[in-house]
Amino acid sequence: MNIKNKVVIVTGSSSGIGEATAYLFAKEGAKVVVNSKSNVDRGKKVIEKIKKIGGKAIYINADVSDPSQSESLISETIKKFGGLDILINNAGGYEGQDFLTASKESWLRVFNNNLFSTIHCSQYAAAYMLKKGGGKILNTASVYGLGHTGDPTGMAYSTSKAAIISLTKNLAKLWSPKILVNAIAPGYVHLPRYDTFSKEVQKNMIAEMRLGRWIKPDEIAEAFLYLAKADAVTGEVLNVDGGFTLK
User: Fold this and answer.
1) Of 118, 147, 153, 171, which has fewest CB within 10 angstroms of its CB?
2) Residue 247 lies in a domain
3) 56-61 and 179-186 as β-strands: parallel, antiparallel, unpaired?
């Protein structure tokens, strides 16, 4: 797929991986929808950054864990840009938990932010894509969602990402060949919250990756760009983990 002038939604794109992805797709000539549920000012700054390079982008505030707001995000995108070609389900969050004491509410918060946001947006996007002839859906999973990894201190997070991987493969079967569905499983991407960790913790995290360094948000964005352009790939989970899974 040539993504020039294609309409792309990137959920959770006011910072981090989502911001880098929105910027890269706009730089490649796509029409980009930047989205966040709370950091509106930051989302609008991403739009300004895109417009400075001559890119086309709009900001839509929506909590995509809410099905009605997911539907509004998709319908408003189609109304303003005249269609939808690529959905990148990136919105999500992490919540550390002690499994023995974690409440059902804490599990639901993580599943709503990670899994159900992906489900809701995919439902409404696919309903449009199937009618108009096809499209791409790309999901943000995690190496922690893979069977031989996982994070015991964030069990709900790992489980939600494993569910996203399963969802990705099942939707690829369901909607092929019209809609190609793939996912990225990032390793430790350098995000601002990691800077609050102790030097020792950061050192140990980096040591888990064979590259011996943080992964950059731009490098995940480049992987999403590859999958958006690829027309012979579906149902795949691309690990961009710096060798984290080479154990």
Assistant:
1) 147
2) no
3) unpaired
Please say if 188 is a catalytic residue. no
Coil vs helix vs strand at 10? strand
Q: Considering its fold, how many domains does the chain have in total?
A: 1
Catalytic residue among 59, 144, 157, 188: 157
Contact present, 92 and 112 (Cβ < 8 Å): no
Q: What is the pTM of this model?
A: 0.96
Q: Does a structural domain hold residue 2?
A: no
Contact 178, 130 (CB under 8 A): yes
User: CA-based Rg of the chain, rounded to a whole angstrom?
Assistant: 17
Identity (one letter) of the amino acid at 243? Answer: G
* Residue 207, token pair as written in the block: 């040591």
Its domain, for residue 72, covers 7-239
Residue 246 lies in a domain: no
Cβ atoms of 143 and 192 closer than 8 Å = no
Residues 195-247 have pLDDT tens digits of 889 999 999 999 999 999 999 999 999 999 999 999 999 999 999 999 999 96
What's the CATH number where 193 sits?
Answer: 3.40.50.720
